[in-house]
## 1
Amino acid sequence: MMSVDLAFGENELLPAIAQDAETGEVLMLAYVTEEAIERSRETGEAHYYSRSGEELWHKGGSSGHVQRIEEIRVDCDGDAILYLVDQEGGACHTGYESCFYRTIGGETVGEKVFDPDAVYE
Amino acid sequence: MMSVDLAFGENELLPAIAQDAETGEVLMLAYVTEEAIERSRETGEAHYYSRSGEELWHKGGSSGHVQRIEEIRVDCDGDAILYLVDQEGGACHTGYESCFYRTIGGETVGEKVFDPDAVYE
């Protein structure tokens, strides 16, 4: 199904950036397997590989905060993926729209869009 | 100098996304060490770690296509970095503004902004 050669590393993972297709906000960085990319293309919703759970991860499968895929891009070396998505709710488990809600100096700059206690039991 | 704890892995690297601070375009994904982040903060220009060259990499140091740092963000788990930058020239060695200039289906969607033969000898 893929047309661009992907350079999966020894661990068969590639980093994948999710970006809000409309606002341009970078939402999160996670990892994908070839299977995760194929499932994203087939279902139209972002899939990743959970390194902690060691399994295919359908983002938002339990929280409802799915990411509808608008386009998938590949970088020049084929070793990174960019998901352009329409994010339902927020991307971050903390309730922020983006996982990148802090500066490196510790200042909160992101927007909180949901109450994690109400979403995750 | 850092305020947010970073979760460097066994290889002491973290993935770092560079995003154009003005247009929101995701420019590239590379890797950083703690030293690379510190040099970025000290100099105001993006530094990475070159995995192929196994050395600190001042992006644009030879091509002139530097990335002026406007802000550095950290994700929720402290295991990914976002550089918000003002990109001189283009980010990609192929001459495209962004390394993510192709869809996974192989369609070119990015904009070419310089001639790599004129920049890299």
Note: The domain at 14-115 of chain B is CATH 3.10.20.810 (Ubiquitin-like (UB roll)).
## 2
Amino acid sequence: MEIKNVTVAGGGVLGSQIALQSAYKGFAVTLWLRSEGSIERTRPKLERLRGIYKASLEALKTDPSAFCRGLTDSPDVPPAQLDELIARVDAAFDSLVLTTDVEQAFGGADLVIEAIAEVIAEKEAFYGSIAGALPEHAVLCTNSSTLLPSAMASFTGRPDRFLALHFANNIWKNNTAEVMGTAETSPASYRAVVDFARAIGMIPLELRKEQPGYLLNSMLVPFLNAAEALLANDVADVETIDRAWMLGTGAPLGPFRILDIVGLTTAYNIVAASPAAQEPGSTAARIAAMLKARIDEGKTGVNAGEGFYRYN
Amino acid sequence: MEIKNVTVAGGGVLGSQIALQSAYKGFAVTLWLRSEGSIERTRPKLERLRGIYKASLEALKTDPSAFCRGLTDSPDVPPAQLDELIARVDAAFDSLVLTTDVEQAFGGADLVIEAIAEVIAEKEAFYGSIAGALPEHAVLCTNSSTLLPSAMASFTGRPDRFLALHFANNIWKNNTAEVMGTAETSPASYRAVVDFARAIGMIPLELRKEQPGYLLNSMLVPFLNAAEALLANDVADVETIDRAWMLGTGAPLGPFRILDIVGLTTAYNIVAASPAAQEPGSTAARIAAMLKARIDEGKTGVNAGEGFYRYN
């Protein structure tokens, strides 16, 4: 099946990135938003992304380290071609259609990427509201990080054409896209989404079955939890634990640098939701308390200027 | 306290490396071995290490990537100075005293590093056999990976002067040394061992309390286990899981490359010993079966030429 018209639902951090990236790579993109207020809040995000895309391509003329895997195939692109790509960013930005109209947004969609709030009731209402407008052949993807597609498949009325396409933040740089179907997803829909992910400059990571947390978070969460436990149990300090990981594995970042990027609030929400954290005196409870103390001081990570480390 | 005379007990993989490294950095090193047969088996290991040390220093004359953190402080060393260091390797090798004599090995020791088999009864017999020969001030370290020093402290007769100093394999390159005391270890002994580790070119990683697995393995084991679970549950293939980790965290190696280096037999022993692996149908049991199948085919990792990947 051929995908030309892509509709992204939701203009949050990821929704806006997916929309601009897809348009940049030549797709006709509509961004469906819930209200006029959402449209007004999404425009500056898209403006900001346009600036980042153009600045990254401009920087690549003189600095190979400015290479973003989602923007060009390699760091070696002649300046004239980079100028064409910069013009393409503007054209992509201008081509985006932002609308609250369900018929306009979904009536001609080949592919829908849902990136709305992680609330199951909202997902249900959303999929119910678009079902009547969608063309028969349209494939639906959810970008949900925390809900499994099988929990939403029945809402869509087309479980064979429904799966998860999970992006990382800053998709023009961190261009992985985890592709995960349910037991009902048809192979044709799965392949179409893998191909689409590749077509918009992503590296598709194919999951053969449902897995909460997909691949990356399935490994990252227990790893970060182990590091948090060492700190919460006062086995060593932040710098020593990070150094042990970096020197022992050659990784560029230790767990606490990664936690500062992920954000301490997200890390806290994950551990606080675990059954072990409800037992006073458990390691999980100590981890939660340790993270909460930092969060209460405003040290929530890189974005706040301080987390486990200080940033300028 | 000043450390001059270092005695290493055991001529295995780590014992021989610790002995040569300590001599290379200027300490008077005695290697105590259990029998004449052990001495004969240890000599070729030391010869091989001498060759590696000299070849690495020689290569550094023309190739900065040959830099080994345990051999020189930086990659920028003038050739004449490298020639001096190469001569120092020979001098260090020649200075090593190999003996089975307890009085000769331990009678003048300031520091003992025990690197014998990971069998508690052997540790007990060893510490008991040397107690009478040791000078009062001598500090004892165990390099044990799997036994906690508190489980051995009573064997030594000097629990205040006993702690763990845990090396990584290939210490001239992977120069971390985890320093871990028990509740009884005196601060002075702890500091003396930290200083010694630094003096032989290691980066000491200071643990404030006992932790099974120290720092690195405390993080590595749950991380590798999570990756093994993804494979054993057929969520994705080896290459995809590795790619998810490398692209998502910027790490140079994914979990299955690391497992090939660690060795599948070690990974199998860890998971097979867990209570969960005894339950048929559990993820741990599936992981154990998956590793065992590869081990039975001789695919035990890099050293065998094949593990999860093939090596030439």
Note: The two ends of chain A are 49 Å apart (CA to CA).
## 3
Amino acid sequence: MSAPTYEALKLPSFVETVLVTGAGGFVGQKLVLLLLKLYPNLRIIATDIIEPPNHGITDTKRLRNVKADLGKPDELKGVFDGEKVGGVFALHGIMSGGSEANFPLGYAVNVDSHRALLEATHKHAEANFPQGHPRPIYVFASSLAVYGAVTPQSVVDPKTKPVVPESSYGVQKHCIEMIVYDYGRKGYLDTRTVRLVTVTVRPGAPSSAASSYISGMIREPLQGQESLCPIADSMDDPALDYYLTWVGRTKTVIRNILWAAVVEEKQLKEVSQERIVNLPGIQITPRQIIETLIKYGGKDKLNLIKFKKDPAVIRICDTWAGAFDNSDALKLGFEVDDSKTGYEGAVQDFIEEELGGKVA
Amino acid sequence: MSAPTYEALKLPSFVETVLVTGAGGFVGQKLVLLLLKLYPNLRIIATDIIEPPNHGITDTKRLRNVKADLGKPDELKGVFDGEKVGGVFALHGIMSGGSEANFPLGYAVNVDSHRALLEATHKHAEANFPQGHPRPIYVFASSLAVYGAVTPQSVVDPKTKPVVPESSYGVQKHCIEMIVYDYGRKGYLDTRTVRLVTVTVRPGAPSSAASSYISGMIREPLQGQESLCPIADSMDDPALDYYLTWVGRTKTVIRNILWAAVVEEKQLKEVSQERIVNLPGIQITPRQIIETLIKYGGKDKLNLIKFKKDPAVIRICDTWAGAFDNSDALKLGFEVDDSKTGYEGAVQDFIEEELGGKVA
């Protein structure tokens, strides 16, 4: 249950200010908290479509919170005005369920606003850093959802597996991956893309994402609430073993997003010409989620799992790969959870950090 | 030297009007000519940034020529107003050299105007075809330039070769491939993408494309003009055999672009979930180009080839694959040139169609 390490996470000295978009989201909040913890002298601009939380920081030199719609040129400009941004974490976006339900909104946010942010960062870099100076570091959070045409039994090797998204979300993420790469290739920005693994355990309410049950089956019962298992009929259903699921412990994923800004550009390009890394994950089964629930919450929590197959969810889960090759990421210094104990670590984190150590 | 066949090229009966963009370009002009020849009752809207040629057709019911900048909403709207478009051939674009030289222009044309065209076609379809009616057929011309991280000795199999473009052009084409696929996946349009092979012999002046010499070494000397061979020092240079080059005879490529509109959607999706086909090609060497020049133009034409290595061209040619797996395309009824005689056929076509049968 070894935790991620932070010693090597040194940002280049010219990175005195970083911008985090989607800073009000779960991943964005956790990243801002880690930046605050690791870098006492770093200025952080945190932006989102609603005002992000200030995490108790009232010194606006340290943390500047900006409510901004990055799709609106004047609001985007306002984020950069008067700043000297040396690093960007582009995390904002419409999630998979939302992008599938609202086609124009998905493209407006996941494509158009990201292109606008890229170009704004490029122009900002030209205006603020002299020629020959290292370019600002730009980390784009993509998703393993760009891969489709796979099954839960697949092991994806990025070197031989073409990207075939099965959702508008995957298409949009892949387009921006490519354009982010192009800004890097042209030398406009020092770009890096990380494809996020399913983060677990996500706090908060169930979402419309098909993957929602992966966190939900732990999260709700540990709080004494019912949760749906949409891929199986009962504890005897072999689907509980079939749907191999690729996940990452929240704090490991957050550490790795930050590591993406630290890893050397040269080393990254040697491993991935397009500077894209599939973040490492570990494989769990739905049965393992339930067993871990019982271990940490007690046998009675099983009664809170309501088995009811949902064909729509199953159809989507059928297109998810159960494993990815981690070797490129590990070679580059990204970290991976222990394959045996990592998932329990994620559940313990959730109990400690989100439930204040108390299980219902 | 068998020519492509046209008997099977039946468009669905609801396709009474087709739109061809980039209709003033080489490929666009040839496609319009083929449409005029094969379909006497088809209405063709031909558009380009400059007014496309009318090919001697003065009946504007048969051929409507529109000068339009598809990046301008009102001009794009003007193309569709009052029409009932059942098929689109989206061929317009900034070529590879131009996209690399002018980053914003490449994105404006190769990405933004194509997205606008897709959405305009989608809206047009909703307004003009009732629910349940087959969707308009949308053929997007992409390019094998989306592939990078290969060498002239590579044989690319699309099933195991991820797309890693090495140019803004390749990035832009790949983004639109993905978005075109998304419109198909959502059922908005019946979309098909063909990745064009290098078309030979291209008429006209040498272009800024690195591939320009492939047509140039035949085209200029046959007209008594000098031409540069930028990848070799002399006829003894092994580079003339090393730079395996993947090409298609013009009329075969044009036939295949039209075939993309005819092939059954169901069959296409079975072969390629994302409805993308690498158009078939044949392999030639630079030496073979020169030998064919001598065969059709006489030994003295060799004096018109000026050998002068250009590191910039070589750097790009080093990233081109010398061959692609044709099998998916052939399974779907796309045609391929004869591997032995196809290139000579392309040269004969050029002499007959572009030089009026006369060699200098």
Note: The radius of gyration of chain B is 20 Å.
## 4
Amino acid sequence: QDSSRADSTDGEPLSLITDSPEEGFEVAIQLARKGVTSTQPDKEVLFMLRDVYSKDPDALIASSQVIAIHFQTVAAANNYWRTDSDE
Amino acid sequence: QDSSRADSTDGEPLSLITDSPEEGFEVAIQLARKGVTSTQPDKEVLFMLRDVYSKDPDALIASSQVIAIHFQTVAAANNYWRTDSDE
Amino acid sequence: QDSSRADSTDGEPLSLITDSPEEGFEVAIQLARKGVTSTQPDKEVLFMLRDVYSKDPDALIASSQVIAIHFQTVAAANNYWRTDSDE
Amino acid sequence: QDSSRADSTDGEPLSLITDSPEEGFEVAIQLARKGVTSTQPDKEVLFMLRDVYSKDPDALIASSQVIAIHFQTVAAANNYWRTDSDE
Amino acid sequence: QDSSRADSTDGEPLSLITDSPEEGFEVAIQLARKGVTSTQPDKEVLFMLRDVYSKDPDALIASSQVIAIHFQTVAAANNYWRTDSDE
Amino acid sequence: QDSSRADSTDGEPLSLITDSPEEGFEVAIQLARKGVTSTQPDKEVLFMLRDVYSKDPDALIASSQVIAIHFQTVAAANNYWRTDSDE
């Protein structure tokens, strides 16, 4: 997972509350990458590894799974972005 | 996971709210693929990899698992598509 | 996972609501297989792969895990099949 | 996972409701094995495979994880076996 | 996972209710090991395997994941050990 | 996962309740590492292994997943750090 994106929160404090599922998915991606960079903070190493995992189906599916778990958390945080008509 | 489908939301904004479990499963598949394309946006690479993972039992099971996690999120979002008689 | 079963819903629309945990487990199996066939729809390929994964302990455990995640969803959908005496 | 136990429910219909966490853990084990036998019903094959996975640390940990997911479901079904004093 | 600890509940019946997150984490570890010993009860085999998995990063991470799933269950059981001031 | 951080709770008892998602993510990292050190307490072994897993994409993704599961627990414990305006 490309780590640069994890830091591109343009200084905004981390929040799980978003306006839409699309934004929520972005936060999930950010959190998944934050999990990687917290274990391996060296951007050069991560950049080198990107070439490996971004062409490995198993790693791509495993990354998608980490995003899925975080998206489940963010979706619950936003009450699934239900509108009144959905309730 | 065939990425083309992830973009076939014909321009509709992403939503977790659907009319049926069947539609909900489609959204789960779409989200699982979105997790892959967010890490590897290059469609040609994904198309090449498809030939590998679509014939690998472990990868097929792992893909099904990512869909299962997203389906759990979508099902909760739709209160499990319960009808009044189910409540 | 033997995909034929995923389509044997004898035309009934997909529903998470069942009368018993046993039926709920069947729906979980059906959903797990649906996740496989949505990625690899070719029945011949799936039949060929069945010979591989059905004798591989890791694949059997991984399949059981996908079923477990779907069963968690179906069980919540049915309020864990609690009867009044259980409440 | 030794499949014989999955069928030793002495004819009782499958239920998630139990009197204690210990019994709940037994149901979780039963469900995890049911997920294996639903994919591979041949007891002889399963018995042969047992020799492999029961001495493989990765497979033992993976089995424990499937049980953990089912135990989470069973624990929620039983309101975590809370007594009035716990509420 | 060192199985001896799974039995060190000094005869106390298994309970998910604990006084603190720290104790809750201990129960999660105990449940994760119980999942292993339910599949492989032979302590000698487990002791031999310990030498392998306790030096294998993938196995250590996988064990931590099983504990994480059980801890999620135990934390929910204890309403996340919230005090009145947290509510 | 670098185990030193798991003990750097400067003596404070483990708590899931934090002021922000950022702090919650730190607790999730701490819990994920606690899961590793509970299985392998030997710091020297862990330090040696760090060199391996911190450069292995699969291990980095798997670590991120354990953190994701714990973060889901911590987020629920803190009601997703919703403010009144979010309710």
Note: The two ends of chain C are 36 Å apart (CA to CA).
